[in-house]
């Protein structure tokens, strides 16, 4: 069965790549090849739901994508975006000469080279494989998966931040730290992660606040082995103090999530007092 990674993820990755600066002529050439390859895969993804993977309209597009990603690596062999995209073709698409093992190796190479998207995808892949053999108390999280997830979170990948937040909140594979969890959820929410917005809103509604003015020092500058310490350092602000506007802040995140279709966020909003009533009660106090 064909497991594809969809136009949405591709377009998001395309925007991510487009913001990178091409410092050399080879980098610029590689970006051009990647853009051509992405365009071909997006068109293939548009057709695939309505046809067979071997359809004559699909195969030329996938072949074009594969060739362009390979050319990108030829002109710039350290291009992790090309590694990541080529790995996806090998692992998830029906292409001539597809080799899942090669795809997995490319994914790990991109992750080891510091690509946060690859680190997150590799962590998820390792967890999925771990679940099949019962690793990590049933959730598939082993030391290797946790390492890549943590590295991606340090680079503020929204999906990785959400999973790290859940890990800190549950305390299953690291020391339970609600403030570190809240920091992860808030940063993921600010990047548009719906579930993270709901969870962070819930934490605030229950009385936990992580100040907005908190340091935003880039965690990627730190040594990978210090990733966990960095997360704790960046969320260590002493005692937690509830403020009068925390309810409205929680409402703000719930509304963001509810607008994206999150039913749980809508339930939270329905349970909260009306904004006007809340303001009046605060004034009376």
TrEMBL record:
Protein's recorded name: Uncharacterized protein
Annotated organism of origin: Marchantia polymorpha subsp. ruderalis
Pfam family, one: Sel1
Entry-linked InterPro entries: Sel1-like, TPR-like_helical_dom_sf
Entry superkingdom: Eukaryota
């Amino acid at each position: 069965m064909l497991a594809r990674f969809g136009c949405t993820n591709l377009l998001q990755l395309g925007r991510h790549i487009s913001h990178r600066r091409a410092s050399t002529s080879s980098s610029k050439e590689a970006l051009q090849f990647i853009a051509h390859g992405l365009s071909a895969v997006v068109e293939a993804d548009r057709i695939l739901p309505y046809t067979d993977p071997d359809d004559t309209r699909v195969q030329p597009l996938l072949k074009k994508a594969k060739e362009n990603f390979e050319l990108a690596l030829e002109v710039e062999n350290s291009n992790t975006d090309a590694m990541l995209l080529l790995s996806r073709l090998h692992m998830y698409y029906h292409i001539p000469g597809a080799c899942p093992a090669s795809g997995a190796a490319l994914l790990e190479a991109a992750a080891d080279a510091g690509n946060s998207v690859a680190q997150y995808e590799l962590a998820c892949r390792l967890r999925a494989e771990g679940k099949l053999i019962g690793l990590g108390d049933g959730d598939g999280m082993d030391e290797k998966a946790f390492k890549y997830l943590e590295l991606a979170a340090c680079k503020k990948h929204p999906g990785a931040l959400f999973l790290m937040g859940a890990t800190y909140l549950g305390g299953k594979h690291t020391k339970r730290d609600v403030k570190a969890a809240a920091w992860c959820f808030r940063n993921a929410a600010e990047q548009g992660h719906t579930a993270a917005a709901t969870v962070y809103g819930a934490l605030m509604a229950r009385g936990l606040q992580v100040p907005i003015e908190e340091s935003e020092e880039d965690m990627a500058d730190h040594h990978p082995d210090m990733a966990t310490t960095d997360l704790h350092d960046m969320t260590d602000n002493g005692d937690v103090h509830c403020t009068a506007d925390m309810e409205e802040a929680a409402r703000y995140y719930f509304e963001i999530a509810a607008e994206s279709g999150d039913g749980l966020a809508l339930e939270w909003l329905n349970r909260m007092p009306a904004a006007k009533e809340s303001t009046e009660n605060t004034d009376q106090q």
